[in-house]
Amino acid sequence: MTDGQFVRRAFFVALVAALFAVLWALSEILLLIFAAILLAVVLRAIAERFSFHTHASQRWSLLIAATVLFGLLAVAVFLFGSQLSAQFQQLVSQLHAVQDTLTGYVGSERIKNLLGGDSVGTLFLRVLSWGTTAMAAVAGLVLVIIAGIYMAMTPAVYREGFIKLFPIEWHDRIGATLDDSASALRLWLGAQMAAMAIVGVLIGLGALLLGVPSPLALGLIFGLCEFVPVVGPIVGAVPVLIVALGEGWEPALWALGLVIVIQQLEGNVIIPLIAGHAVRLPPAVGLFSVIAMGVLFGPLGLAVGYPLAVVCDVAVRRLYVREALGEEVEIVGEESRAEQVMRN
User: Fold this and answer.
1) Within a domain: 102
2) What is the pTM (predicted TM-score) of this model?
3) Contacts of 291-295 spanning 24+ positions with Cβ under 8 A
């Protein structure tokens, strides 16, 4: 090896290392970009459905989709905002009371040692301490909404710009991978939103029938946690059980039974009926993807870990298994995208 070759190779290695360092430093921004992409996928799905039935232009359909989506959120806040606020305040006071009771029994140092220590404990500690970063979460949410609307308005601009980062001979494969990923995300998001609504209502009604305080707030928390598969329902069950425990051991046991029954219904009835075989990500892969993203990047990584794993699954199946290895493999979203093209 000549000196020139050694210098070029050393420079290339340093360049790759610097690129990975920059990506790691910008990891939170990249996750926010992916969250904005998820929002854009939702808006485009609603807009295209509306345009298909009304023959309105894409721009008007997108405007109506955004208006309907955020209008429903505004109506929900207006109708239930005061009730939710009161129930959340009651919920917080009950959680503090339970914390004081546990501290009196086992001591504050032992509780701290129980929460801290390993990576999984650190993950749950981050999730439970979200209130300290409320302003950052609000700023990130606003950024995601604005960027998601921009991406939904002109998706071709961002799609083509990303494709141009690769060599020309890769353009068709990268474009097909992006399209399949978008279709897979639509299928997963549709099933997940329906599951969130169903289990949230079931938890709220169950808590109301059992006499557990703040049923509306508990149903909302459980429904939102359902967005994170596998881990989310476990995290969402914690406030339900803690609040029920504040009412006594018997309500806590009934609440535990309620959570177990609903989680079994969700895993064995609700998700299979709604999603079918839409997303074929192996459960263990999804579980470790969510845990790994949560440990590395906190609540934001926890929230987008599963859909990011769906996209990676599509990319590996198409670009590596099918294109590189030449093996036949079923790709999530490919059949749905073909049906959509036929409809259009």
Assistant:
1) yes
2) 0.72
3) 291/120, 291/123, 291/231, 294/123, 294/126, 294/127, 294/231, 295/119, 295/120, 295/122, 295/123
